[in-house]
């Protein structure tokens, strides 16, 4: 059995209206699967009251929180943001990209915003983001899931830890690893980092 994470949430997590109706999407997915708030909370290592606030659009969830809930629901973050997306788009302009982890100009507690490069579509095998990482921002703990991932550092620095080994990446460096290997990441620098991050299949 996978160890349960502590059922806590940073008190600094900003409140506000959640873009793209994420709360409604979470509630819909939960009800379709016949799950209670307590079921999601236990599996994700979060409190039922926190999930209730997210579903009612009373609090802006961090990226790691969304990831944990989406994983329990058998979906992905990009799928939750798909409500307002046009699925037939081939070109997505920067101003039109949905940003996960951002609301009313504020960033989530990890200090990471993720511009969704590839809008969700049923059957799609690829998932891509531009991670905008503030100094000191991090993945919110160790991650481990199915699939593969790769990335490329556009700006700043990235510290990537894969199975306990630490790698320091700079502009122009790229990476690849199997997502089943325990991994985490953070921005160790003093400047904002921008990293292209690709996953397959969609799990984030």
Structure notes:
With 204 residues, this protein is an alpha+beta fold. The protein has two domains: 19-80, 434 Repressor (Amino-terminal Domain) (Orthogonal Bundle), CATH 1.10.260.40; 87-200, Jelly Rolls (Sandwich), CATH 2.60.120.10. 21% of the residues lie in helices and 26% in strands. The protein contains five helices and eleven strands, in the order αααααβββββββββββ. The chain has helices at 22-32, 37-44, 48-55, 63-73, 77-80, and strands at residues 99-100, 102-103, 106-107, 112-116, 127-133, 148-155, 158-162, 165-169, 174-178, 183-186, 193-200. The strands form three sheets. Strands 1-4-5-11-6-9 form a six-stranded antiparallel β-sheet, with no helix packed on it. Strands 8-7-10 form a three-stranded antiparallel β-sheet, with no helix packed on it. It has a two-stranded antiparallel ribbon with strand order 2-3. Strand 2 (102-103) and strand 3 form a beta hairpin. Mean pLDDT is 80; it is low at 1-20 and 103-109.
Please tag this protein with its features:
434 Repressor (Amino-terminal Domain); 2 domains; alpha+beta; 204 residues; 5 helices; 6-stranded antiparallel β-sheet; globular
On the 0 to 100 scale, the average pLDDT is: 80
Hey, roughly how much beta strand do the residues contain?
A: 25-35%
Considering DSSP H and I runs of 4 or more, what fraction of the residues is helical? 10-25%
Low-pLDDT stretches = 1-20, 103-109
- Count of distinct structural domains: 2
Helix/strand/pairing category:
alpha+beta
The CATH level-2 architecture of the largest domain is identified as Sandwich
Question: Can you count the beta strands?
Answer: 11
Shape: globular
CATH H-level superfamily title of the largest domain: Jelly Rolls
Straight-line distance between termini: 21 Å
Gyration radius, in Å = 16 Å
SS field, number of helical segments: 5
Strand order of the largest sheet: 1-4-5-11-6-9
């Amino acid at each position: 059995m996978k160890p349960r994470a502590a059922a806590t949430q940073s008190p600094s997590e900003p409140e506000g209206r959640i873009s793209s109706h994420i709360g409604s999407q979470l509630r819909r997915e939960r009800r379709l699967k016949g799950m209670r708030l307590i079921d999601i909370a236990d599996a994700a290592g979060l409190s039922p009251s926190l999930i209730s606030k997210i579903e009612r659009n009373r609090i802006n969830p961090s990226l790691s929180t969304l990831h944990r809930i989406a994983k329990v629901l058998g979906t992905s973050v990009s799928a939750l943001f798909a409500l307002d997306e046009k699925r037939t788009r081939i070109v997505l302009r920067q101003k039109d990209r949905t940003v996960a982890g951002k609301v009313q100009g504020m960033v989530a507690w990890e200090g990471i915003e993720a511009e969704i490069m590839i809008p969700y579509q049923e059957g799609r095998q690829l998932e891509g983001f531009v991670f905008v990482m503030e100094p000191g921002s991090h993945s919110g703990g160790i991650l481990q899931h199915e699939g593969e991932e790769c990335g490329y550092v556009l700006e700043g620095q990235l510290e990537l830890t894969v199975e306990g080994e630490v790698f320091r990446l700079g502009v122009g460096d790229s990476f690849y690893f199997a997502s089943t290997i325990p991994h985490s990441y953070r921005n160790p620098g003093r400047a904002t980092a921008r990293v292209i991050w690709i996953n397959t299949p969609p799990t984030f």
